[in-house]
Design goal:
141 residues, mainly beta, three-stranded antiparallel sheet
Amino acid sequence: GQSSVPQDLGEVSVVNSGDHHTCAVRAADGQLRCWGLDNEGQSSVPLYLGEVSAVSAGGYHTCAVRAAGGQVSCWGSDSDGQTSVPQDLGEVSVVSSGGDHTCVVRTADGQLRCWGAGSQGQSSVPQDLGEVSAVSSGGDH
């Protein structure tokens, strides 16, 4: 289950929990490990991922920032486009996965970008928001 921490995990630098799964970045090598519910592939870390600097577990999806180049990779459920990373995103410093949406902070200009579900306005970033340094996504907000 989502609360059964792998015994061989070792020291971690980042931990994040979603609705029914948990992910951690191993301090020794930057490798991502996820466990818990995997019905949409949200706990199945892609083999190509490599070292990561940040991770965010959402409802039924997971996103991580790759340490080399700051690119975002997402996997799991894409029911509302939450794992469909925009092609023009560029390097990011922060990622936050909500229930069915994902938000990031772009490194170059500090702009917040969100995609996925928008029925509650959760993916609609105000045009006059300006530069941000952090983001935290909730279930529908």
